[in-house]
Batch of 2 targets.
Target 1
Amino acid sequence: MNTTRRSFLKLMGVSAVGLSLGQLGFDLAEAQAYASKLKIEGAKEVGSVCPFCSVCCQIIAYVRNGKLVSTEGDPDFPVNEGALCAKGAALFSMYTNPHRLTKPLYRAPFSDKWVEKDWDWTLNQIARRVKDTRDKDMVLKNEKGQTVNRVDTLFMMGTSHASNEECAVIHQAIRSLGMVQMDHQARV
Amino acid sequence: MAAKHQSVADTLADVTARRPVLEPVLRAFEPLLSAGDALAGKLAESVRDAGLRLPEIQWDRAQQGVSLLAGVSLAGAAGPMRQAAEELLPLLTTIEAVAPHAEALRAFFLRPVENPAEAPVDSNDSRDALAEAVVAGRSIESIASDGGVDPEVLAFVTGFVLSPVLHAMVANALPEDGEAPWDRDGAWQQGYCPVCGAFPTIAWLDKPMLDERNAYLAGGGGKKHLHCSQCGTGWKFLRGACPSCGKEASGTMEMLRETEAARGERLDWCTKCNTYCPTVDLREREAVPNLDALALGMMHLDMVAARKKLRPLRPSFWNMY
């Protein structure tokens, strides 16, 4: 049986609809040609969770060809009802902002210039300086003789754009070095 | 500040300005849609006088997905339908394919309505029966045959004539302010109309609501509402669920839109059952369009959907190709 779209709809029990525009005498050739030339984009709606704090507001992520194309608050989630705080609203830029640093930049003491460095140099510098400072200032016991294993002269400056999971890893890493001073830039 | 609501004429003028190619169709239906829109208000009194009222919503029935008019008699609809037909038939019969049926349609819709007090007990006006059949989704072929009208023409015309009557019933039942009874406490969770059981013709995503107790952390808008063109009911629905098959899972729904100048117009379609519903995101618009008019004005996207083998959630005269 040759089933057209219209006959299929009729089979679906929608004969009560009646006549179509074509049957009503309208020539739709021009409109069809227009529609065929339209540039159409699609995206899948994927439910997700904002990664920035423990409120865990839900978001709807629009994904096209496996890539994130936009995000918005999920209006059906009772906590945020579609809204997002300033951080959550900027979630999309976490992945796409053209101003994100993609290479390490180094500014030497008393310099006013940032210089691009490679990761090997940067990681070696960080490791060297952390180790030197830790070796010099590590406090194993306090005045009462209690074990504290801390280094007060190192400070961890995080970012408010780090996700819960990233924060957990960073936190464990710096604690393991004995660092106790930490914060992120949104509060300073 | 409340958003401005556009009339049918303003909505279609806005569409025509952006898509002149649709102008012949939109111009032809503008008087009809405008008249239908105005009739809903005019019929409020006669609908009430005819004893046509929506039953009170019952929580357990709503939870089971039983719409309010399921199994409800529409005896008395003949009067308001006749009133609607008096205004709409002159417009409908200007359409090329309807014109040859003008006499039969007038005989069917405009004959006098019997006074209920004088009518025999077993009297059954075929316009009442027609209204009940359309709302129940039953075949109208025997009614059309008895009335000497072509079934497809009768179905097309009835869509316009019955709609203002049902719109008036719904408007009479709605509270002046506050939520509709079917939206209260998530009473209704189906993708079809809580009043008449029809599938929606269009959906809309609402604008943000300012909640002064929590101005920045709640009420961001984007809540989906479905709109039934048959009775004018709007109801809330989940963004991530398909109104047709009810499948609810992340990634079930996809959307299609014009790459540029979409102005919030898009199609939301289900990757499981391939049905779609035109949707307008009011966050991308200043004024709220007339939804019945906009559904017609988005027919270019219906054409796109047809080429992608998608099926309209609510087949209508403008989306069957």
Target 2
Amino acid sequence: MRKVYHKILKIAGNVITVEADNVAYNELAEVRTSRGVSLAQVIRLQDSTVSLQVFAGSRGISTDDEVRFLGREMTVSATENLLGRIFNGRGLPRDGRVALDENPIEIGGPSVNPAKRVIPRKMIRTNIPMIDVFNTLVESQKLPIFSVAGEPYNELLARIALQAEVDIIVLGGMGLKYDDYLSFRDTLEKAGALSRSVLFIHTASDPTVECLMVPDMSLAVAEKFALDGKRVLVLLTDMTNFADAMKEIAITMEQIPSNRGYPGDLYSQLASRYEKAVDFDGAGSITILAVTTMPGDDVTHPIPDNTGYITEGQFYLKNGRIEPFGSLSRLKQQVNAATRGDHRAIMDAMIRLYADYRGTLEKQSMGFSMSAWDKKLLRYGVKFEERMMDLSVNIPLEKALDLGWQTLRECFEPSEVGIKTEIIKEYWDKAK
Amino acid sequence: MAEKLGRVVGVNGNMLTVEFDRSVIQNEVAFVVTGDEKLKSEVIRIRGNRADMQVFESTNKLKVGDRVEFTGELLSVELGPGLLKQVYDGLQNPLNLLAEHSGFFLKRGVYLNALDENSQWQFTATAKPGDKLRAGDAIGSVPEGLFTHLIFLPFAWNGEWEVTEIVSDGTYQLTAPLATVRNTETAETRKVTMVQRWPIKIPIGAYREKILPRNPMITQIRAIDSFFPVALGGTFCTPGPFGAGKTVLQHAISQHAETDVVIIAACGERAGEVVEILREFPHLPDPRTGKTLIDRSIIICNTSSMPVAAREASVYTAVTLAEYYRQMGLNVLLLADSTSRWAQALREMSGRLEEIPGEEAFPAYLESLIAAFYERAGLVELNNGKLASVTIGGSVSPAGGNFEEPVTQATLKVVGAFLGLSRERSDARRYPAIHPLDSWSKYPSIVDADKLATARGVLRRGSEVNQMMKVIGEEGTNIDDYVIYLKSEFLDYTYLQQNTFDAVDGACCRERQNKLFDKICSVLAGGFAFGGKDEARSYFSELRQLFLDWNYIAADKPEYAAQEKAIDAKITEKLIHA
């Protein structure tokens, strides 16, 4: 029988401190208040005092409320029965069906031995030219969508999830608007994908601390399936809420903040989640697509900044389009040599010319006269935006490459595009 | 001696507070016992009878009262034959063996020997009984792949030692005693084996003196070798925002650099990038030796999700191994990616220790630690008169891509070359994105200094004209200025930019760089007659195309000379004076 403690020494923010012994770091406890029972987790041990973060928040906790340590860490039930189910940030059912407790596994497990990873080589086709042609998504990649509030990032996430060929989709929602949660659920259901999905949903109205568990639970489940040989796609939206919840706890614990109030270990904390993306040597894979909303559209804000250093590229979603500048898939080199001989050449040349087009636009807006070259660029830019950048375009990679050649041919001479002659010879006239 | 013990009294993240009753040493290694696991940790601060320790593992499930066993030894690595080709974590655990031992995941509390105790080596003695040796003098050697691996009198042994016995040439086990030596002052006798231990945070100092680095370390990257060269024994840093190509650049350097040994420290970065090296190096041929790249490499890999304290140790582990191979008379290149993650590890610990924070919460001693790290590079004259070097290249990941931040600034103070990567260039796909105007190097270039000055002048003037054109427009720019702008763009496209992923263009040797640079300089210095801006633009874009194609042709192909002729013809077409 575990001991029950009745004396809470300190309540600050969502952290309570009690005097207790034989408590393990990261252990779970139940706090029983007049409002109900909440889970709490040990976050610091100092001599005989124990500090816990209370998931439901500290509001309404009385100093003589009951704290009972459970002698175990946070677990999640990992079985096939998870599929088609929806849970909240504490791992309890949100869909009104029975709770699951068989085969519990600990969350936030150790990191994968790099020697057991393989080089990712499988392209994930999305039929979005800005992704397939310019920033190819690769199985086991970790990639965030950098965006601002109001952009259709959740729609983009859902679209990629449904078009990608994966076995299992795990959705981790953090601070998700209730409407967004419902539309995710309905989209998955309508496409018939809910039966191969697991949803961990923390909505904006739930206690903040609860969202801290969502990535770990989602990834622990994903890891379980991946070890069974499944290809798993994990969607995390929105990681900014997760980082903000960490900040809140860190400040409450009087940690010295490093940058704009965020804890010094923000990088390591985010990395330990994103690094769960893996292609196992001899088992399945985990691909992570996350959303990071940038406060004030500022990419140098600590959250997108640290994220960018961890992930293997990023998609910038701006004005409903994936921006060619700044968007990057670091793994594209692993796959785009094997797609088609002209893939890399088209990818580089079109972006370089589009950069020139942006320069010309600037000149134009300042009222300078346009040279013959500028006029070519202006024609090109409009076509590029319409044929490649528009998110409504839904064509396979090969079609998109052909369209690329067609666009170049309509606007330029072969010597103007900076592609090596050999490739020009092969493709320039072919795509007519 | 009785075991030195302590007990845990506080747990905060990966920091423990431990109460001890006897003595402890600063930076001493201790093991925390929890259940049947023993977790490695290091003392980082002592106050009264309490020590703060960083744990190199997850601190899950630790309790107040858990037992702590002190070892009396500083954090050390094993040095001996068999280090090459290995993949270690920050504490020198061999990752391949760990995978065999515990499977997919890095189970905590598992520590394996860095070197295989049972391995056999063909020993050739060079010392004779009666020889008087000092620390760092060789007693003999074993062959290790490409190299003759010297066996030293351990670096930590003070004073003069006389060889009293030495084994005859033959095959011996790694841990077998090879020689017996007697201290000439104290008469203490010790046995020398192939393995010795050395504390990683202390530089190996068994050499005569440091020498000013002069000779270039060829990287086969044009922008580096010609414009911002690095010397053997020098230091350089590559700061850049994310996505600017730091890692791709480091990989290119690691593959093509003309040094004997390359040590790659993947410190707090993505596991995926290390996997590329792990899986590809065993298959990539090294044109200099005819073997594969892995034969000359050691990889230290403490990726971002691995424990943060071990990340702090990983750069020291790497530099210690580099110094060890330097002692054999070799030129060693250490690439650390990224030193910012190492600095962040320091910041995390400093925060937990509740030290008064410096700028951006980095500890106040950050600068001196960075300086001390880079100062371990250098060209040295060894005790036997041979020259050998450690070259250090560190990538820096400044927050927000802003070079004003503390890690970049502290690094710039101590390095000899600064290869600043710019977002602007990488957005425009101008790789390598080394900024040609902001970067600098204090080392001599491989190309002619006067021509280099001319080329730099063209780049600077071209950039000015470009700025000016943004204000007054192309039509307001006179044709001479416009041609300078075109020349600077031409130089950028045909020389500074280089396609790392192309087998030919990706590696441009010294001779080829000189040849190409001379040819380009003849264009830069030449006067041309153009009827108008459009004519000038199309001339330069055609010329550019010829050069680009030339860069992609291997020098031993017949097309190479043909292309050169085509280029010469194109140049003379419009040239009015050279």
